[in-house]
Each structure stands twice: as structure tokens, then as C-alpha cells.
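User: My notes are a mess, but here's the protein and zinc ion's SMILES. Can you give me a structure?
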Amino acid sequence: MCENHEAARHGPAYPTFDDCVRFHGHSCPGLATGYRVSTAAMRTLGVKRPYDEELVCIAETDACSVDAVQLVTGCTAGKGNLIIRDYGKHVFSFFSRESGRAIRVLVRNSDIPGRSAMDELRKKVFSGIATPDEIARFHEMMAETTRSLLAAPEDDLLEIREVTEKPPEKARIFASVVCGECGEPVADVRTRVVGGRRVCIPCAQAREISGRA
Ligand SMILES: [Zn+2]
Ligand SMILES: [Zn+2]
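Assistant: No problem, the inputs look usable. Here's the predicted complex:
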């Protein structure tokens, strides 16, 4: 295990994995993966817990890992510096506005021992036909995988490379207008014009549906 990895796991600058578990609600392999991605990205870019919108992340997944990214890197959906483009890939791009550097972090499809057995059990557990023993075994396997992901050498787990892409535009503050249909305040840029009136998206969609019927 390399020194950098040790520093990333135990350095005081980052929230711990336990902090992530509290935030996410449970411990799982996805969260562990997100934790490794986040700490590696911040270390590579030389960023401590970022302020405001200094760091920007584009996540190509919407899975559990994203919650670790939000807590550890401070890139959050609400601030607009976490952008989810759900391509179903465990790939995360990080941009540091301060240094102008950007990296792309890919989670390697590492061979987890017993993965196929775990996938079989998962199907049973989630379709409600697993026995109590199978449920217990499934949770034990998940915990094992989580532990091994947290301990894996970084190079085995992640592929990190510098990229030259530019970060997306900063989040803008939009003017609020009142929807001509429901009367609720709505961000200007999210409105549509229907029948000469400015309305919110749900109202525009409702009009479309009733128009078609
Ligand atoms: Zn999870
Ligand atoms: Zn409306």
C-alpha cells in the first residue's frame, strides 16, 4: 500500500468513510468506490475541502458512489458543481477552477472474488425470495467487498488521467416568474410558452396531454 493512499485515507483534510455512511444511510460497495474516487481526485488536484464552486464534478452515474463525492469533495447537486450525466459508467471528471487542471477518474472493472455468487444472491434478496440465511450471507458479502474496495491499492482500482477539457459554466442565478397556469413561482429559464402564456413544465406537459386527448 503506497504512502499517498495512506495519507488519503487517514489525512485529516477529508471526511472519513464513516461520515459518508452516516450521510448515505448505509455502507455499501458503491459508496466505498465513491470514497476512493473522491479522495484520490482531491489529492491528485491538490485540493482540500473546496469552498463554494472551486471544484466541479461531472459524474457519469447516479449510483451510491455519488453521495461520497458530494460529502468528500463538496461538489453538490444543490450548488450546481455536481453535474450528473447518467451514462451508467463509473467515470468521474473533476475540474479545479483555481488551477485550471482537470482529471478523469475511471473505476476499473476489478475482479471481485465471488461477484457472480453475490449477483445471484442480490436477485433473490431484492425479489423477496431469499431465506434469512441467504440475506445474512448477502450482507456479509457486501461488507467484505466494501472492505476490500477501501483497502485496494489505488492503481488497481482507479485509472486517473489529466484531461484538457474546460469546466462547465458556473451555475447562474435565474429570475423567478409566476406560471400563467398554476400561479406558482418558477425559474424563468425553465418556463415554456404555451398558447402565448409563460407556464411551468408540468403545466406545459399537462396541456400537451389534454391537447392530444
Ligand atoms: Zn448505497
Ligand atoms: Zn404551472
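Strands lie at 55-59, 82-84, 91-96, 102-107, 158-163, 176-178, 185-187, 192-194, 197-199.
User: Great, I'll file this with my notes.
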